[in-house]
Backbone:
């Protein structure tokens, strides 16, 4: 297993793992709740579920919407039909059916591609989630479940391990759903996929410990909290993180400048002759250039914050620094990018990042590579600037001057002689 993918998977699963570790601590305190507090706790899953549905629809999170409905339907059926002993045949049949249905539905949701919400999309997928629960509810209302008890196969009657209440078949289904969810998480690497895996595990634990007091309320509440966190984090990422480069975007820059204080230097960065990459090699190569520049800037701009401003423009914020200190870091950024052997991706490029680095390091400028350079204009915040927009405007003027002087250089607004000189290719 490549180390990078494993680390990313673990990082994505950390919020869910934290909630699962917190669950036993919270459960130990539930015995101290009075009757009114217990009733309020029972209302938490429907309230959180309703809020999650609204947010999922608002932010086009289709798979999380289906998972929320799957979780809510399970909880409501448990609350309405399974509040007495499982020794009753009807209850045991319903419990057995739900223990198979939930992981099957999670498996179905895992394989759905995330393409946003539409009426057609909902009509295609929502009935699959609801129909099974509606079937069990109607069977329970018509007192049909107890008659099915004698027809249950051995795999549903035989528990996988005492004293846990999950049957052999249920454990197998939960295991398959979880493993395939992890495989999908490996390839998609999204927080939503990590959320689906954790919720599958949480419900498996809840059903295995079904005899414990308030375990269904607690598990569903924490699962819905995880869904809310995932939806809100995804919406934040869409608003503040540039998807192509992974850098914070312009909205994040505006927030940073509002709290940057009175002393900072701002650098406007532009990729030299960027249009040439798109015209010569196509937009895919242009995207490669943007990602490379973003990666090198993050590594070289130690002590500063890097943002994608838009198009081929980036911004660096040097908090607490004057232009003299900031231009030293700006020059490290500029020279790091100019020295980077940018290899145009082709069919023969290795897919593994480690092999790609080895290929790039064979020579200072391997055959088939191209040079990418940037120009930087810097401006220090002074009392003469009434707001951050004035600083950006003056940094833009310095950037324009850097381009006039031949590109591949850094120019600071208040330093008479620019430090940078064009680097030889």
Residues:
């Amino acid at each position: 297993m490549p180390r990078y993918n494993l680390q990313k998977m673990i990082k994505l699963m950390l919020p869910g793992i934290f909630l699962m570790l917190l669950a036993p601590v919270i459960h130990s305190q539930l015995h101290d709740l009075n009757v009114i507090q217990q009733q309020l706790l029972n209302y938490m899953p429907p309230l959180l579920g309703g809020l999650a549905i609204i947010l999922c629809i608002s932010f086009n999170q289709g798979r999380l919407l289906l998972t929320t409905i799957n979780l809510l339907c399970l909880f409501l059926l448990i609350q309405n039909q399974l509040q007495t002993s499982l020794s009753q045949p009807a209850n045991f049949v319903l419990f057995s059916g739900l223990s198979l249905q939930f992981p099957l539905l999670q498996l179905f949701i895992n394989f759905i591609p995330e393409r946003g919400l539409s009426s057609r999309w909902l009509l295609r997928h929502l009935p699959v989630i609801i129909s099974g629960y509606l079937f069990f509810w109607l069977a329970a209302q018509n007192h049909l479940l107890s008659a099915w008890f004698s027809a249950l196969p051995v795999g549903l009657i035989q528990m996988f391990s005492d004293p846990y209440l999950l049957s052999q078949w249920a454990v197998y289904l939960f295991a398959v759903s979880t493993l395939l969810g992890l495989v999908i998480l490996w390839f998609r690497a999204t927080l939503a996929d990590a959320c689906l895996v954790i919720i599958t595990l949480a419900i498996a634990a809840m059903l295995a410990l079904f005899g414990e007091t308030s375990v269904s309320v607690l598990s569903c509440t924490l699962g819905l909290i995880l869904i809310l966190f995932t939806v809100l984090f995804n919406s934040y990422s869409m608003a503040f993180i540039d998807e192509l480069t992974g850098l914070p975007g312009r909205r994040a820059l505006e927030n940073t400048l509002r709290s940057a204080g009175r002393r900072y230097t701002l650098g406007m960065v532009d990729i030299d002759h960027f249009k040439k990459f798109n015209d010569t090699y196509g937009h895919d190569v242009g995207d490669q250039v943007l990602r490379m520049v973003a990666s090198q800037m993050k590594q070289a701009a130690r002590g500063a914050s890097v943002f994608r401003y838009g198009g081929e423009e980036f911004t660096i914020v040097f908090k607490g620094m004057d232009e003299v200190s900031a231009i030293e870091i700006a020059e490290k950024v500029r020279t790091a990018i100019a020295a980077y052997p940018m290899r145009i991706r082709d069919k023969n490029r290795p897919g593994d990042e480690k092999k790609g680095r080895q290929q790039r390091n064979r020579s200072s400028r391997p055959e088939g590579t191209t040079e990418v350079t940037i120009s930087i204009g810097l401006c220090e915040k002074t009392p003469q600037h009434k707001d951050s927009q004035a600083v950006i405007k003056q940094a833009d003027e310095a950037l324009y001057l850097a381009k006039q002087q031949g590109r591949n250089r850094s120019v600071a607004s208040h330093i008479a002689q620019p430090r940078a000189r064009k680097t030889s290719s």
User: Anything to note?
Assistant: Confidence is low (pLDDT under 50) at residues 347-351, 362-367, 418-425. Residues 3-29 form the longest helix (27 residues).
